[in-house]
Structure formats: C-alpha cells, structure tokens
Q: What sequence folds into this?
C-alpha cells in the first residue's frame, strides 16, 4: 500500500488577540506536533471530543488551513509549497463532506446548481455534459433525475447529506474528508449514509478520512485510526489492534464511555473526572494528566514520546513506554491521585 | 405505587399553510413515584411536543390541544389557571433542556439564576437562597461551588452548564422532572458524568423522571420503563430490560439495530429503509408500513391498536415479533 497523505510534525496554532489587535494574549494550540500517514484506499478515523483539534487537522490536510509548523504531503508533494495554480489542480482530488447538511448547502441553489458548481469552477461549460454527469452522480448516491430542479428545503436531512456527497465526488476525487457526516442525522438514517459511503469507496476507489466522536462507528468503518486529545495524538494505528488492546488510558476511557444497549454483559464504566482543559494554556507534561485515572507524578512534567509499541500501533503514554532517560522529578513513578479540582474553561 | 402523572389520549395539531400537522395523536402516559420513564423517538415524532403539553407550555393558538385527562400528583392540570401553573412549574415539576447555553440567561450569574428558584418558590431571603444554591451546586458535583456561583454561563464548560441546569431543576425537590435530550449536546466522557449525576440525584431525591431522547443507549443506561414513539403515536411500551432483550415492534427492532455496537461486524451497517413520513402527509394504515419488511395488506389499510402483549407491555402492530426476532 502506498501513502496518499503524510503529515510530518504538523502544528496549527491560532493567535488569541486581546482588546487591542497588536496585543497578543496567547495562542490556541489546536493541533500540535502530529505525524500520521494515510494509505491509499483505506478509511482513516480521527476520534476525539469537541475541541481536540480533529476538524482543524482535517482542514490542514486539504490545505484549507496552513500549518504553523510541519509538512502536509499529498502523494509526496508538500501542499503548502505549491504555487497557487498547481495547488488548485491538486485540490480537486481532495474533497470534503460536512457535518451539517442544513448549513452546507446553499438554500437558493437547486440540486443541479449545487452538484455542478465544482465542475463549473473547474471550467466545464457544456450544459449537456454537466447535466448528464449530475444525473449520473444523483443516481450513484441514491437520488434520481427527477430531483434535478428541486431545492434543499424539499429534502430530508439524509437526502441532503446524499447531495453533499454527490457534490464532493463530482470531480472524481481520490481523497475524501468526511467531517462527522452522520452526527446531525437521525439514528435510523445513520446506517444508510455510512453504507452509502462504504459502497462509494469500493466503486470509486476512494480514500477516506472519517472524523467522528462515535467510537463504535469508527470501529466499524475504519482500517486505521488516531485518537486525539487537546491537539495531540494519544494513540494511533491499526483499528483492530487498538480496539483489541487499547493502551492509552484515554482510549480506554473513551471505549468504556460508549453506552451499550446490551443487557447481557456487565461492563465497567470509567467516568473521567473534570473537563477538557482549555487549549490556550494546555497542561504541561502529558496533556491528559489532570483527568487520567492512572497518572503518575512525572506525567505532570515530562511530555510522553510517541512510540511504536507494536507494528502499526503507536502510543504516547509514560505508562506504556516508560519515562525517558533524563533528569526526572523525585517520585516520578508514584501514582498521583487526580486532583478533584480541575480548572474549567 | 403512587402515580405522579396520568395522561390520556393527548392530541396536538398545528394548522399550517401546508395542511394540518398532527404532531401527537392520542398518547397515553403513566409515570409512577421514583420512576424514570423514557420517551424515545426520532426527530419529528412528537416526543418534545408531548413533554411540553404535559407542562402546559404549548401556546394555544397555534397549537390545538385536546386531552381526556392530564393529572399530576392527583391534580387536574387542565383546570389550573396560568397562575397556578406557574406555581407548579419549577416547584413540583421542572424541566431540563438540551442546550444549556440557550436556556441559561447569559447576563446573569448562574448562582443568581438558581437563587431565583428558592426565592420564588420558597420565599427565601437572598442570603438563605445563596446558601442553598451553594449546597445544591456542591451536591451536583461542581468544584468550588461558592466561587462558581458567581460565574456567568459563558465562563463554564458545557458539562458544567448542564450540571447547573440539573441543580436548578432539583432545587425545589420537584415530584417530576422532564429532561428533554439532557446529554445530546455533550461529549461522551462528559455525558457519562452527567448521566451518572442525574441518575444519582433522581434516586436520592425520590423524583420521577421523564427522559425525552432519541438515544437508545442513554435509555438503556438510566430508564426503568420505555415508550417508543413513531410519527405521533406510541408504538411500543415496555420495561427497559424487556424492551432491549425482546423488542416486539419492527420499528424498535430497527432502531436498536441502528445503534452501532463495538461487538458488531466491520464494514456493514444495518439500516431501516426510507425516511420518517412527513407530518402533513402520513401514510394510510400503520404509519410504519412503508418502511416495514413484514408489512401486509392489512397494515396498509388499517391502523393497529396498542395491544397488551405481557406484563406492563403493549405494542401497536398486527405482526409483533417474538424474542428471537421471529414473527409471531
């Protein structure tokens, strides 16, 4: 398998300005020092809670946000070094599907205008070709040619999401970022959209980045995944390996937090204390130490390294990797009772 | 057991330019003392309208409401004046909404908003009220409650704001709390915290809880009894364990299959075909028949009645499923 997308030490920081524009208050470290590689033809999941940087990371992948540091390589080419016209050409092959199908479609455009817009921007001007292509795309996503001149308001949430998908695949992309594609939809519609995505992937030979906060969806969809917390990757690798043997305490807690509807087996529920801290002044050391049920004293000071613990399974945790050889604070490997009081946002 | 709420044959209709929207069509609801009852359904099934009608929060007009009986704690709510209702709301019956940011007043400290409950309903002085507020915040698991009481809603995280709403709802120890999607806007780890607190408070205070949600996994973790709604009608009613171990209605079966589970097969999602019918133009016969794999001619013609199928269980289906998912 070849790599289609490689991230090398990507960081995205946003300045936070004070009352006066030249007074910089600090910066939000939305994504810090993330390295990942995504292979052609796979589904790569990014999981995490709100504010952990998953959407920012995806935006950096498609070049919508310039990383503050690090490189984003699409098929081996650094996106941020490309001249503008070359970048535009490249950008056609990477598309996005958005979370909210109500705000991501122009309410004043009809279906034909929505789906053909990317082609129009590419410079296609033949009405007949475009129309034929739009009808073809509509049928591919489970809509019909009768819908051609209807408006988004005539459709249900699931159908609108289908429109969003048709628009995203109109230029035959090879890389598709799906940002929470089903979380705005009704439960009984989730499965329809996810099945459609799987079907299209097979038909069109696509690579997906699948962003979600629902671990069960991710487990079923993805080949590889990355678990993010406060802008950092905590655990990443082969999805089967991670679910079979979650090593990072955060991944373990996330898996345990999935409420199950099975009454047959009792599962232990880990309730993490506190809230996700603010990314403006992230905690020192490991970013998770304040909420970690297994934190040690050293976790507060020494940031953990991101290590491949078994083939295709990376973890950033002192508990798994041990502390590095350097000067360590006294009693660094003593367990720390998580503080009751974790500063809120 | 003491009955807290008795609702019989609730019908709510909204006239619109496109025709009549029959939001709720004959819903019966019983809630007993210390019980957590869940009302489950997808968007547009009438679950929120039902809960608002119970608190008499629906404006009429536009809503046209007809109800055979609405009794709360032995009182006939349909006979209460608006002033009496204002006394009841908050003191005997409270509501928790989905989005804490929009249900809290952004220009008032959260402490003052909770104080209001005690001052309005108990006639406490400012000082007494604040003492109780601090205690309530502490009970609900907010660190540094005295300092936090002086925070504005935007200074708190989503989970904390939801806790403030919980503290407010439990403030006067009401008999019934209606929680409309209380954890939908929260992250998974925070959802686990808030549900645990909600359940603990409900048990501790001896309150009954009506949980309105679309999320079956939330239902499974805290409810005692469940009503499943589809297109304005109750389609199944059962104790929680029975419902999840042997659902009878094909819609319930479909909903449960649609909840992804960790143990499931990869790359395959069980789906319910079609979409929820438009409320203006519902299908003939059983509302679920166009999406039901077991539908017969009779289902297309005739609306089934809610029939008892076991102890405390009812289902609205001509061909209910038995335990193994087989047709009876």
A:
């Amino acid at each position: 398998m070849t790599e289609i997308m490689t991230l090398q030490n990507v960081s995205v920081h946003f300045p936070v300005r004070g009352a006066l524009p030249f007074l910089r208050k600090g910066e939000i470290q939305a994504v810090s020092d993330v390295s990942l590689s995504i292979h052609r033809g796979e589904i790569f999941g990014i999981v995490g809670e709100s504010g952990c940087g998953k959407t920012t990371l995806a935006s950096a992948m498609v070049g919508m946000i310039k990383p503050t540091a690090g490189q984003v390589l699409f098929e081996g080419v650094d996106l941020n070094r490309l001249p503008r016209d070359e970048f535009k050409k490249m950008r056609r092959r990477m598309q996005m599907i958005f979370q909210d199908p109500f705000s991501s479609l122009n309410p004043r455009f009809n279906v034909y205008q929505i789906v053909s817009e990317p082609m129009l921007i590419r410079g296609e001007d033949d009405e007949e070709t475009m129309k034929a292509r739009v009808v073809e795309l509509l049928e591919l996503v489970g809509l019909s040619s009768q819908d051609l001149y209807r408006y988004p308001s005539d459709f249900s949430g699931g159908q609108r999401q289908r429109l969003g998908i048709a628009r995203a695949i109109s230029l035959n992309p090879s890389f598709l970022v799906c940002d929470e594609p089903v979380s705005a939809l009704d439960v009984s519609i989730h499965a329809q959209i996810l099945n459609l995505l799987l079907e299209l992937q097979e038909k069109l030979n696509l690579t997906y980045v699948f962003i979600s906060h629902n671990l069960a969806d991710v487990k079923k969809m993805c080949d590889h995944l990355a678990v993010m917390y406060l802008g950092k990757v905590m655990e990443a690798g082969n999805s089967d390996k991670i679910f079979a043997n979650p090593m990072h305490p955060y991944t373990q807690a996330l898996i345990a937090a999935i409420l199950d509807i099975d009454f047959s087996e009792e599962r232990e529920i880990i309730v993490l204390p506190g809230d996700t801290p603010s990314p403006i002044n992230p905690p020192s050391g490991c970013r998770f130490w304040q909420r970690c049920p297994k934190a040690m004293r050293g976790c507060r000071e020494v940031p953990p390294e991101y290590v491949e613990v078994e083939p295709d399974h990376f973890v950033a945790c002192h508990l798994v990797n041990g502390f590095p050889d350097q000067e360590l604070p006294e009693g660094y490997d003593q367990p720390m009772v998580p503080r009751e009081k974790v500063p809120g946002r | 057991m003491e009955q807290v709420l008795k609702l019989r044959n609730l019908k709510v209709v909204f006239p619109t330019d496109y025709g009549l929207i029959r939001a709720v069509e004959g819903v019966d609801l019983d809630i007993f003392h210390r019980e957590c009852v869940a009302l489950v359904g997808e968007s547009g099934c009438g679950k929120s309208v039902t809960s608002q009608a119970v608190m008499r929060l629906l404006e009429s007009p536009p809503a046209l409401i007809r109800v055979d009986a609405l009794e709360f704690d032995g009182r006939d709510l349909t006979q209460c004046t608006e002033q009496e209702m204002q006394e009841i709301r908050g003191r005997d019956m409270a509501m928790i909404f989905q989005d804490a940011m929009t249900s809290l007043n952004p220009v008032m400290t959260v402490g003052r908003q909770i104080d209001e409950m005690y001052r309005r309903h108990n006639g406490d002085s400012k000082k007494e009220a604040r003492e109780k507020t601090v205690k309530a915040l502490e009970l609900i698991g907010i660190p540094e409650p005295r300092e936090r009481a002086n925070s504005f809603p935007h200074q708190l995280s989503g989970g904390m704001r939801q806790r403030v709403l919980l503290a407010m709802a439990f403030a006067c120890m009401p008999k019934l709390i209606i929680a409309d999607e209380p954890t939908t806007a929260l992250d998974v780890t925070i959802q686990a915290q808030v549900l645990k607190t909600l359940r603990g408070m409900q048990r501790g205070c001896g309150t009954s809880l009506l949980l309105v949600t679309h999320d079956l996994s939330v239902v499974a973790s805290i409810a005692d009894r469940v009503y499943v709604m589809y297109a304005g009608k109750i389609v199944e009613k059962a104790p929680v364990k029975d419902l999840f171990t042997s659902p009878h209605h094909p819609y319930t079966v479909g909903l449960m299959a649609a909840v992804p589970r960790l143990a499931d097969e990869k790359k395959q999602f069980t789906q319910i075909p079609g979409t929820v019918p438009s409320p203006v133009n519902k299908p003939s016969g059983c509302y679920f028949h166009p999406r039901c794999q077991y539908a017969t001619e009779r289902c297309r013609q005739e609306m089934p009645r809610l029939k008892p199928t076991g102890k405390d269980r009812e289902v609205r289906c001509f061909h209910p499923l038995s335990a193994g998912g087989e047709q009876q």
User: Anything to note?
Assistant: Chain B touches chain A through 52 residues (CB under 8 Å). Chain B is about 35% helix and 25% strand. The first strand of chain B starts at residue 3 and ends at 16. The CA atoms of residues 96 and 179 of chain B lie 5 Å apart.
